[in-house]
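**Archive record**
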Amino acid sequence: MNRPHIIRRHYFTRSLILLGFALYIGYLSRSDSLHYYIAPDMVTWITYSTIPLTIMSLSLAYQALFHKEDKLCDCERPLSQSSFKNISMYGLFLFPLLLGILLPDQALGSMAAAKKGMTLGSPVLSSVQLSSMFKAPDKYNTEFAEIAKIIYQQQVIEVNPEVYSEIIGAIELFKDQFVGKEIKISGFVYEDHSLEQNHEFILGRFLVQCCTADANPFGVLITSNQSIASLQKDSWIEVQGVLRTEIRKGKEIIAISADQITQIPRPDTPYVYPNGDAIKGLYDAGYNIKSGTD
Protein backbone atom coordinates (compact mmCIF):
# COMPACT_ATOMS: atom_id res chain seq x y z
CA MET A 1 0.00 0.00 0.00
CA ASN A 2 1.24 3.45 -0.89
CA ARG A 3 1.71 5.92 1.92
CA PRO A 4 -0.21 9.21 1.52
CA HIS A 5 2.89 11.41 1.58
CA ILE A 6 4.48 9.30 -1.19
CA ILE A 7 1.33 9.59 -3.31
CA ARG A 8 1.28 13.37 -2.78
CA ARG A 9 4.91 13.66 -3.83
CA HIS A 10 4.32 11.72 -7.05
CA TYR A 11 1.14 13.63 -7.87
CA PHE A 12 2.93 16.93 -7.40
CA THR A 13 5.88 15.83 -9.56
CA ARG A 14 3.53 14.76 -12.35
CA SER A 15 1.66 18.04 -12.02
CA LEU A 16 4.87 20.03 -12.52
CA ILE A 17 5.87 17.96 -15.57
CA LEU A 18 2.48 18.43 -17.25
CA LEU A 19 2.51 22.14 -16.45
CA GLY A 20 6.03 22.38 -17.86
CA PHE A 21 4.94 20.89 -21.19
CA ALA A 22 1.88 23.16 -21.31
CA LEU A 23 4.00 26.27 -20.68
CA TYR A 24 6.65 25.20 -23.20
CA ILE A 25 4.07 24.56 -25.93
CA GLY A 26 2.48 27.92 -25.12
CA TYR A 27 5.87 29.61 -25.44
CA LEU A 28 6.53 27.96 -28.82
CA SER A 29 3.10 29.03 -30.03
CA ARG A 30 3.51 32.66 -28.92
CA SER A 31 7.03 32.89 -30.37
CA ASP A 32 5.85 31.35 -33.67
CA SER A 33 8.38 28.53 -33.32
CA LEU A 34 6.10 25.49 -33.50
CA HIS A 35 6.77 25.20 -37.24
CA TYR A 36 10.36 24.21 -36.45
CA TYR A 37 9.07 20.98 -34.92
CA ILE A 38 5.72 19.99 -36.44
CA ALA A 39 3.81 20.16 -39.71
CA PRO A 40 1.28 23.01 -40.19
CA ASP A 41 -1.67 20.60 -40.02
CA MET A 42 -0.65 19.68 -36.48
CA VAL A 43 -0.13 23.22 -35.14
CA THR A 44 -3.74 23.82 -34.08
CA TRP A 45 -3.99 20.47 -32.29
CA ILE A 46 -0.71 20.93 -30.45
CA THR A 47 -1.56 24.51 -29.49
CA TYR A 48 -4.92 23.51 -27.97
CA SER A 49 -3.32 20.55 -26.18
CA THR A 50 -2.16 23.08 -23.57
CA ILE A 51 -5.75 23.22 -22.26
CA PRO A 52 -6.10 19.55 -21.19
CA LEU A 53 -2.47 19.51 -20.05
CA THR A 54 -3.13 22.47 -17.74
CA ILE A 55 -6.39 20.96 -16.44
CA MET A 56 -4.66 17.66 -15.62
CA SER A 57 -1.79 19.53 -13.99
CA LEU A 58 -4.11 21.57 -11.77
CA SER A 59 -6.12 18.46 -10.86
CA LEU A 60 -3.00 16.59 -9.76
CA ALA A 61 -1.71 19.62 -7.86
CA TYR A 62 -5.05 19.98 -6.05
CA GLN A 63 -5.00 16.32 -5.03
CA ALA A 64 -1.40 16.59 -3.87
CA LEU A 65 -1.94 19.74 -1.80
CA PHE A 66 -5.50 19.69 -0.52
CA HIS A 67 -6.98 16.18 -0.53
CA LYS A 68 -7.29 14.54 2.85
CA GLU A 69 -5.34 11.37 3.38
CA ASP A 70 -8.44 9.17 3.44
CA LYS A 71 -9.62 10.70 0.14
CA LEU A 72 -6.46 9.91 -1.81
CA CYS A 73 -7.20 7.28 -4.41
CA ASP A 74 -4.38 4.79 -3.76
CA CYS A 75 -5.87 2.72 -6.59
CA GLU A 76 -2.68 2.31 -8.62
CA ARG A 77 -0.06 -0.36 -8.22
CA PRO A 78 2.46 0.17 -5.39
CA LEU A 79 4.88 2.95 -6.25
CA SER A 80 8.54 2.07 -6.45
CA GLN A 81 10.59 2.81 -3.36
CA SER A 82 13.74 3.04 -5.48
CA SER A 83 14.92 6.62 -6.00
CA PHE A 84 16.86 5.52 -9.08
CA LYS A 85 13.77 4.02 -10.74
CA ASN A 86 11.66 7.08 -9.94
CA ILE A 87 14.29 9.51 -11.22
CA SER A 88 14.74 7.42 -14.38
CA MET A 89 10.99 7.29 -15.03
CA TYR A 90 10.38 11.01 -14.61
CA GLY A 91 13.66 11.76 -16.38
CA LEU A 92 12.19 10.28 -19.58
CA PHE A 93 9.72 13.18 -19.57
CA LEU A 94 11.98 15.87 -18.15
CA PHE A 95 14.90 15.26 -20.52
CA PRO A 96 13.13 16.30 -23.77
CA LEU A 97 11.52 19.21 -21.92
CA LEU A 98 14.91 20.44 -20.71
CA LEU A 99 16.40 20.04 -24.19
CA GLY A 100 13.62 22.17 -25.61
CA ILE A 101 14.18 24.87 -22.99
CA LEU A 102 17.98 24.93 -23.13
CA LEU A 103 18.59 24.52 -26.87
CA PRO A 104 17.79 27.30 -29.38
CA ASP A 105 14.77 26.96 -31.66
CA GLN A 106 16.17 26.60 -35.17
CA ALA A 107 15.53 24.80 -38.43
CA LEU A 108 17.23 21.56 -39.38
CA GLY A 109 20.28 22.03 -41.60
CA SER A 110 23.31 20.30 -43.06
CA MET A 111 24.26 18.51 -39.83
CA ALA A 112 20.90 16.78 -39.60
CA ALA A 113 20.92 16.06 -43.34
CA ALA A 114 24.34 14.42 -43.07
CA LYS A 115 23.17 12.19 -40.21
CA LYS A 116 19.94 11.17 -41.92
CA GLY A 117 21.51 10.90 -45.39
CA MET A 118 20.77 13.28 -48.24
CA THR A 119 18.62 11.88 -51.05
CA LEU A 120 19.22 13.27 -54.51
CA GLY A 121 15.94 13.79 -56.32
CA SER A 122 12.46 13.32 -54.90
CA PRO A 123 11.82 11.38 -51.66
CA VAL A 124 8.63 11.71 -54.26
CA LEU A 125 2.45 20.93 -75.83
CA SER A 126 -1.15 19.89 -76.64
CA SER A 127 -3.09 17.74 -74.23
CA VAL A 128 -2.66 14.77 -76.58
CA GLN A 129 1.09 15.29 -76.83
CA LEU A 130 1.40 15.79 -73.09
CA SER A 131 -0.58 12.64 -72.36
CA SER A 132 1.72 10.61 -74.58
CA MET A 133 4.82 12.17 -73.01
CA PHE A 134 3.73 11.72 -69.41
CA LYS A 135 2.18 8.29 -68.97
CA ALA A 136 2.05 7.14 -65.37
CA PRO A 137 3.96 3.85 -64.97
CA ASP A 138 1.32 2.70 -62.46
CA LYS A 139 -1.83 3.96 -60.75
CA TYR A 140 0.17 5.30 -57.80
CA ASN A 141 1.99 7.81 -60.02
CA THR A 142 -1.05 9.19 -61.85
CA GLU A 143 -0.92 12.47 -59.92
CA PHE A 144 2.78 12.90 -60.75
CA ALA A 145 1.91 12.49 -64.44
CA GLU A 146 -0.76 15.19 -64.16
CA ILE A 147 1.68 17.49 -62.36
CA ALA A 148 4.29 16.88 -65.07
CA LYS A 149 1.82 17.90 -67.80
CA ILE A 150 1.11 21.18 -66.00
CA ILE A 151 4.66 22.23 -65.13
CA TYR A 152 6.05 21.21 -68.53
CA GLN A 153 3.99 23.98 -70.15
CA GLN A 154 5.61 26.71 -68.05
CA GLN A 155 8.34 28.78 -69.64
CA VAL A 156 10.22 28.64 -66.32
CA ILE A 157 9.30 25.93 -63.82
CA GLU A 158 9.12 27.70 -60.46
CA VAL A 159 9.30 25.16 -57.65
CA ASN A 160 6.80 26.61 -55.20
CA PRO A 161 7.23 25.54 -51.53
CA GLU A 162 3.54 24.56 -51.33
CA VAL A 163 4.08 21.78 -53.90
CA TYR A 164 7.86 21.45 -53.68
CA SER A 165 8.25 17.69 -53.24
CA GLU A 166 5.46 16.97 -55.74
CA ILE A 167 7.15 19.02 -58.48
CA ILE A 168 10.53 17.43 -57.82
CA GLY A 169 8.85 14.01 -57.79
CA ALA A 170 7.22 14.64 -61.18
CA ILE A 171 10.51 15.82 -62.70
CA GLU A 172 12.33 12.84 -61.18
CA LEU A 173 9.77 10.41 -62.62
CA PHE A 174 9.93 11.93 -66.12
CA LYS A 175 13.49 13.25 -66.00
CA ASP A 176 14.30 12.64 -69.67
CA GLN A 177 11.34 14.73 -70.86
CA PHE A 178 12.42 17.67 -68.70
CA VAL A 179 16.02 17.84 -69.91
CA GLY A 180 16.68 21.37 -71.18
CA LYS A 181 13.76 22.98 -69.34
CA GLU A 182 14.38 26.18 -67.37
CA ILE A 183 13.80 25.91 -63.61
CA LYS A 184 13.89 28.19 -60.57
CA ILE A 185 14.28 26.59 -57.15
CA SER A 186 15.31 27.58 -53.62
CA GLY A 187 16.83 25.76 -50.65
CA PHE A 188 19.82 25.57 -48.34
CA VAL A 189 23.41 24.81 -49.34
CA TYR A 190 24.41 21.28 -48.41
CA GLU A 191 28.08 20.45 -48.80
CA ASP A 192 28.83 16.92 -49.92
CA HIS A 193 32.56 16.22 -49.76
CA SER A 194 32.28 13.69 -52.58
CA LEU A 195 31.42 16.51 -54.99
CA GLU A 196 33.76 18.91 -56.76
CA GLN A 197 33.97 21.54 -54.05
CA ASN A 198 34.33 24.70 -56.14
CA HIS A 199 31.68 23.95 -58.75
CA GLU A 200 29.12 21.51 -57.30
CA PHE A 201 26.82 21.40 -54.30
CA ILE A 202 23.42 20.09 -53.31
CA LEU A 203 20.44 22.39 -52.88
CA GLY A 204 18.59 20.78 -50.00
CA ARG A 205 15.23 20.80 -48.28
CA PHE A 206 13.60 18.81 -45.48
CA LEU A 207 10.31 17.08 -46.20
CA VAL A 208 8.29 16.82 -42.97
CA GLN A 209 5.29 14.51 -42.73
CA CYS A 210 4.21 15.12 -39.13
CA CYS A 211 7.14 16.43 -37.08
CA THR A 212 10.88 16.92 -37.42
CA ALA A 213 11.50 13.41 -36.06
CA ASP A 214 10.39 12.07 -39.46
CA ALA A 215 12.07 14.84 -41.49
CA ASN A 216 13.53 13.48 -44.73
CA PRO A 217 16.36 15.48 -46.33
CA PHE A 218 16.41 15.54 -50.11
CA GLY A 219 17.96 17.77 -52.71
CA VAL A 220 19.06 18.48 -56.26
CA LEU A 221 22.61 18.50 -57.58
CA ILE A 222 23.66 21.99 -58.71
CA THR A 223 26.66 22.62 -60.97
CA SER A 224 28.09 25.99 -61.90
CA ASN A 225 30.84 27.13 -64.25
CA GLN A 226 31.67 29.86 -61.75
CA SER A 227 33.33 29.21 -58.40
CA ILE A 228 30.88 28.67 -55.54
CA ALA A 229 33.52 28.85 -52.81
CA SER A 230 31.85 31.96 -51.38
CA LEU A 231 28.61 30.08 -50.62
CA GLN A 232 28.40 29.20 -46.95
CA LYS A 233 27.02 25.92 -45.65
CA ASP A 234 23.34 26.20 -44.67
CA SER A 235 22.96 29.58 -46.39
CA TRP A 236 19.72 29.97 -48.34
CA ILE A 237 19.85 30.61 -52.07
CA GLU A 238 17.68 30.67 -55.16
CA VAL A 239 19.00 28.96 -58.27
CA GLN A 240 17.82 29.48 -61.83
CA GLY A 241 19.20 27.20 -64.49
CA VAL A 242 18.61 24.35 -66.91
CA LEU A 243 17.56 20.81 -66.02
CA ARG A 244 19.70 17.89 -67.14
CA THR A 245 20.55 14.38 -66.01
CA GLU A 246 23.75 12.85 -64.69
CA ILE A 247 24.97 9.42 -63.69
CA ARG A 248 26.20 9.41 -60.09
CA LYS A 249 27.12 6.22 -58.23
CA GLY A 250 25.53 4.19 -61.00
CA LYS A 251 22.19 6.01 -60.79
CA GLU A 252 20.67 8.55 -63.16
CA ILE A 253 19.68 11.68 -61.25
CA ILE A 254 18.34 15.11 -62.09
CA ALA A 255 20.75 18.04 -61.93
CA ILE A 256 20.65 21.75 -62.66
CA SER A 257 23.24 23.75 -64.57
CA ALA A 258 23.03 27.05 -62.72
CA ASP A 259 22.84 30.26 -64.74
CA GLN A 260 22.09 32.47 -61.75
CA ILE A 261 22.58 31.98 -58.00
CA THR A 262 21.04 34.52 -55.62
CA GLN A 263 21.32 34.55 -51.84
CA ILE A 264 17.95 34.91 -50.09
CA PRO A 265 16.78 35.12 -46.46
CA ARG A 266 15.79 31.86 -44.82
CA PRO A 267 12.01 31.50 -45.21
CA ASP A 268 9.82 31.71 -42.13
CA THR A 269 8.78 28.12 -42.81
CA PRO A 270 11.98 26.38 -43.95
CA TYR A 271 10.51 22.90 -44.39
CA VAL A 272 8.28 21.55 -47.14
CA TYR A 273 5.26 19.33 -46.53
CA PRO A 274 3.24 16.81 -48.56
CA ASN A 275 0.31 18.42 -50.34
CA GLY A 276 -2.87 16.37 -50.22
CA ASP A 277 -4.20 18.12 -53.33
CA ALA A 278 -1.13 18.96 -55.39
CA ILE A 279 -3.08 19.86 -58.54
CA LYS A 280 -5.06 22.51 -56.66
CA GLY A 281 -1.79 23.62 -55.06
CA LEU A 282 -0.31 24.20 -58.51
CA TYR A 283 -3.25 26.34 -59.58
CA ASP A 284 -3.11 28.29 -56.31
CA ALA A 285 0.58 28.92 -57.01
CA GLY A 286 -0.27 30.42 -60.41
CA TYR A 287 0.28 27.45 -62.72
CA ASN A 288 -2.10 27.14 -65.64
CA ILE A 289 -2.58 24.61 -68.44
CA LYS A 290 -2.32 26.22 -71.85
CA SER A 291 -4.68 24.98 -74.48
CA GLY A 292 -3.60 23.94 -77.92
CA THR A 293 -0.09 23.53 -79.22
CA ASP A 294 2.70 26.02 -79.66
In short: The chain has a mean pLDDT of 84.
